[in-house]
Amino acid sequence: MERTTGTALPSPRPPRATATPPEAPVRATAPVAGSRTDEEITGYERSPSDVLRTVAFAVLALLLVAVTRWSRDEFTALDEDLVQRLSFLTPTVGRILAGAVALLVLASIVGAWATPLVTRRSRLLGHLLVSGVLAVLLLLLGADWFVERGDADALVREVGRRGGVDSTLTVDGLAVMAASFVVLAPFVSRRWRRAGALLLALVTLLRLLVPIAHPGTLAVALVLGALAGSATLLLLGRPSRRPTLGAVAAALTGSGLHPADLAPAVVDARGSVPCVATLAGGDRVFAKVMGADNRAADLLFRAYRFLRLKDVGDERPFSSLRRTVEHEALVSLLVRDAGARTPRLRAIAPVGSDSFLLSYDLIDGTTLDKLSDDAVPPAVLSGIWEQVAVLRRHSVAHRDLRRANILLDRTGSPWLIDFGFSEVAASPALLDADVAQLLVALALDVGVDPAVDAAVDRLGPEAVAAALPRLQPNSLSGATREALKHRKDLVPQIRAAVCRRSGVPEPRLADLGRIHLKTVLTVIMLAAATYLLAPQLGDVGGMVARVRDADWVWLPWILAMSALTYAGATLSIVGAVPARLRLLTTVVAQFASSFASKLAPAGLGGAALNVRYLQRSGVDLPVATSGVGLSYAAGSVVHVVLMVVFAVWAGRSAFGSLRLPHPQAVLWGVSVVLALAAAALAVPAVRRLVVGRGVPLVRRSVEGIGSAVRRPGKLAQLLGGAAVVTLGYLLCLYLSTRAFGGGLDLATVGAVYLAGAALAAVAPTPGGLGALEAALIAGLVAAGMDHTVAVPAVFLHRLATFWLPILPGWAAFAWLRRSDYV
User: What parts of the sequence cross the membrane (predicted)?
Assistant: First the structure.
């Protein structure tokens, strides 16, 4: 059991406020000047500092392991150089240095593990055991298995012969030593922590003098040991050191405030330690103590918001806890001088070794989150918005206007508290976010119309309307979002009320999310596509060698034919819909469509993108869907017609090995489909769905198709564009065969391409990857082309039509999204 003395402050409830009175304080008489200012261990807790350190060490360990694994030869060369430079060391000197390293590591571990016995902290011994085992396991996985992979190392054997020491023992001991020092850090004074750091530095220096393991392995051991120590503290908890009442009283006394009585305060203090002091003259002050955990929690919170959100006004984190405290004090003074009601700052003082105290005048009142709805009349609402107006006039964004940060005193006057997250010289977007936050926070209590009416009356309709793009959950504090879980319709109601009172249409919401579901799906699809495409690039060297033998005179024509297919796709999509489309934008959309088609099989990605593009261009959704379907249908019809033409042109030899399905099998398949459709229509619910929703959509689609087909120009664009696409790919393959000296004529190559593309269309891979290459190579070889020509010709064709368009297609896709065309 831990030995403690004195009275310590209890663990606070998260989050953060300033001047609010205690609900039920536990009174304790605080010592005056001369009291001890120590911090005491009052229990164990999982600290944000350990979360931050564990994440940082984990990231650093992953980077070091990867770099060490991939740069092992360079590290070996470094060790060889060290061995040569230290060749003047005699075996005796080398053995002494190596022994010194081993003894230092062993003595350090023994000293660290003896600490629990001396201090009688049995729980600390458990922490050390867990960290040591975890360090060895991590080292086995990270260094021995992944970095060195168990390979024998002549260099290590040579140095071991010189030094007479086992390198494995030294590396493992170094990891355990680092883990033990990290675990001991919160239990010992700063002086002992510095001594431990110097000892680690000394062992590392001696290690460089006697290179008994790879330098990369040494770095990995140190970081993995630190990771094991911080993970142990996170898992089992670190000592909870809270400033004693005596330390807080001494800090207040040192600032000129002499407390006669001091009591902890149970308030919403967001991680800080709050208390209330009665001074010798009778005044009462509210003090909150912020320590290293507050700093770590702030860094984690900012990192989370940076990864999840954008354009929310988060500036760079402050360089230290002192700067964080000074910023809150600065904003409080600025706001009070500007005329807003906020408690007067009385003192800033250090508390203990790494904490700071902020003291304010105590305001006798209650925060909004603890009041009933009828306790906030219209006059109070107007007063709250007047305080926000003062902040806006001086470009101060509070950025945390939740109900817990609005205090009503005994006369009903509102006060704004807790400026720890605020910004001065704030941008209009941050000021609008304040309005959005407060609208939602007040509407939760008093309703939508009273909150909106009061805001419009005090700020004006323009200022309130400017907050509309920020009226969304991503702009709100965590406490407000939590309260909205049972009022999901509240924010849309507020937006509608603001539009009605301000006389403006509802604008588009600001895009505050950095990571969207579409982005995640795109990354997943790209990863899946890369996994499928990677095997095709297995013989990159051989493919490059074959391409170098090509006649590069044909290359510009090959690329021109590939580019021609996008012009054909543009003509086809323009002819498939009755509306007029922007030609240049439609061309860009076809490049983006080719990129999207590589993310899903059967061209589903490209079709979806084209539908979205047409819809954003003003085409009705059913017409857009039918238009894209009509374009694909026209392409299929043209493909079949050209297949027949080239088959007749090339003669029977080109299709001698192909067999069409038996007509009876086709008839049975059609019969099964018709029977299933009839059975579905026999269900009344299905019939109502088809008649109510399906028939109107089909009717509108048919009207769109009819209007396009009835116009000769549109029909010519539709069919002509489809023919250009197919012929462009066909000519690209033919020119690729000519580049490698292929002797087949255009008719035969065309027939092979059309047949192979038809077979590859049913492949479940993006763009028929793998299937099309196999079909084309097999077809060309069967038609009489030598395989040494067919293989590089097909790969050159795919390079021009599949691989090279990926980068411009991605750029086109990004531009369409950025320009709001999809």
Answer: 51-72, 92-113, 125-147, 167-188, 195-212, 218-236, 515-534, 554-576, 629-653, 665-686, 715-736, 795-816
Ordered domains of the chain (ranges, CATH): 39-43+241-361 (3.30.200.20), 48-236 (no CATH), 370-502 (1.10.510), 542-655+702-818 (no CATH)
DSSP symbol at 75: H
Q: How many residues does the chain have?
A: 822
Q: Are 15 and 479 in contact (CB under 8 A)?
A: yes
Query: What would the pLDDT profile of 616-635 be if each residue is shown by its tens digit?
Result: 888 887 778 878 878 888 88
Four-residue CA torsion sign, 566, 571, 574, 576: negative
Helices (H), 6-90: 48-70, 72-85
DSSP conformation class of 602: G
- Residue range 558-602, pLDDT digits in tens: 999 999 999 999 998 988 888 888 888 999 999 988 888 776 655
d(CA 432, CA 417): 19
Q: Is 359 helix (H, G, I), strand (E, B) or coil?
A: strand
0.70 surpassed by pTM:
no
Reference 185, options 175, 174, 202, 197; nearest CA is: 197
Query: What is the spatial distance between Cα 173 and Cα 135, in angstroms, rounded to a whole number?
Result: 9
Separation of first and last alpha carbons in the chain = 64
Q: CA 617 to CA 611: how far, in whole Å?
A: 10
CB atoms within 10 A of CB 515: 12
**Percentages of the chain per state (helix, strand, coil), in multiples of 5:** 65, 10, 25
